[in-house]
Here is the input.
Amino acid sequence: MGDNEILQQNLLRRQAVGDFLKRTTKRYPDRVAFRFRDKVFTYQQLDSAVNRACHALKELGFQKGDVMAILSQNCHQMAILMWACFKSGIWYAPVNFLLKGPEIVYQVNHCDAKIFIVESAFLDTVKAVSGELKSIRKYGMINLAGINLPEGWVNVDDLFSDHYPATEPEVIINGEDVASIIYTSGTTAAPKGALLSNGSYFSQAANFLIPSGPGIEETDNMMLNIPLFHVGASSIFVAFAKVGGRVAFTYGIDPGEALDLIQKEKITGLIWPPTLYAGLLYMPLEKYDLSSLRKCVWFGGSMPLDVLQKWMDLCPGATFGVHWSQTEINITGTITYFKDKKLPRAGNIIGRSLLDTEIMIVDGQDHEVAPGEVGEIVLRTPSAMLGYYKDKEKTAETLRNGWLHTGDVGQLGEDGFYYFVDRVKDMIKSGGENVSCLEVEEALNAHPDVLVSAVFGAPHPYWIEGVTAVIVPASDRLTEDNLMEYARSTIAKHKVPKKFILVKGHELPVSPTGKVLKRELRKIYQDIYKDAKGK
Here is the structure.
């Protein structure tokens, strides 16, 4: 069988995520695929730019199985390059733009990247460590700042020029082939590179298009503030492209820009962390037309129920829901929409499993526990990663006994919904007793003068770990004393924080997706009990 015949047989029935874009372009060439700032791309324009980039990368000597590292905030160039990787079989390896020089060196070297695409805002950081990036053969710059191109670097915009043909690249791609390597946040150790296959994206997209899942439709117009280095943004964009929906990217998370965009672009869908929903309540929301919103989802933490109620009142035409997932499962975890407009029983609800996901709650010996009992969440899904790149030990630990072990602690409620309790490694061991940070946060968030809380363990001379709470007040009435009185009347004695720290919203360290960074809080307040006497 000749090479061309092998390619034609592959094209006949393959699972290649890049084909989503090709097929949607044939159906809806003139429909808008996405916008970023003043750049608007129809599906035809996006597909053509992607194909040209594939031919340009081939001309530069890159092929299937090579790795492209990309360090950038959201922009149209990054979106195009992501799809070019999918179509050409190059591994898409985005880099968290919050990383510092040594962290960038570790990730880029670890994934064996051969080409490194860098946004102009991060140029100096990368140039300072470029001598340590051993596998890189070519650098490219996304020039959003209009600065001079470094000598020998490629101008990324040139990769999309008419110099290259807009024809489909001819690459044999199979479902088990790696499409991306997405790095975990590395909260307790060095980041791990989760290998996501083409087949994983097929499962993820299918689960996001069905009514029992997020129910993405071709008429949806979602705003994505989540960065494209995050598996959530890239995979949601993939699902939208499969069905022919529309996405509006923002460079970062700017509350004013977000509200303006909802009004101007008639945004129908949001996916935000609870911190953003809570923070926006300080904005003059009554001045904005939010009537276009139909689906509003939160992820990444417990939702204060008073915040949820306020948003339900603000957007009576929208349905609110919760989504839980991980990088390792390509965001194919759980989701539930509250279509009856009633508040859930608790803000730590994560809903029911998506169609392709089987969930079990297990004890330390991987035995299933009874409903209501707390244990680790494990699951099976076609979206699951192939493993961690160059880390057989961690892969075996995570993918053991036929289940993917999430490291998340949860329980199945009597109502049939799953509830998140905490991360296995975020449980506080105070005086020999286990304390769930999330449980304490739930109690504190119910206080009318608390906007948001973050609970963590800090070293304590008597308790070993002292339960500690950082609070963003919702009013000036809140004091440490009345918080202590409230906590003592609400939760068990051993769960009551030893200290309450009142801060302003901007002082709470958060990730680019809006998750509270408890590892940073632990660093900041590691000596808070240094001089504590006794209990």
The first strand starts at residue 32 and ends at 36.
